[in-house]
Design goal:
Length: about 90
């Protein structure tokens, strides 16, 4: 439940609600189609961020293109310096 309160996810949901309300009375135009496409991309990115955050907190690896990746790598390096004998790359 902690992940569902993220601002990106809430923002994407609220934007979807706004688009839905605004599209009830109007025709579908190329602008509205682009707005829906943009909303879909925003929602997918927000869900991806939630998944990456959850994976990082569980100690599982995240994709290198994720914003969470840099934080996870710093944590791995810190742990490796702290316990050099216990650290093995297979734990990633």
């Amino acid at each position: 439940m902690n992940y569902l309160s993220g601002t990106g996810l809430i923002g994407a949901i609220m934007t979807g609600v706004t688009l839905l309300r605004g599209s009830r009375e109007t025709k579908i135009t190329w602008r509205s189609a682009l707005a829906w496409l943009s909303w879909g991309i925003s929602l997918a990115l927000a869900i991806g961020a939630v998944i990456d955050t959850r994976r990082a907190r569980q100690g599982r690896p995240v994709s290198p293109d994720s914003p969470v990746y840099a934080k996870q790598q710093k944590a791995f390096e810190k742990e490796a310096k702290k316990n050099p004998r216990d650290f093995t790359p297979s734990k990633r």
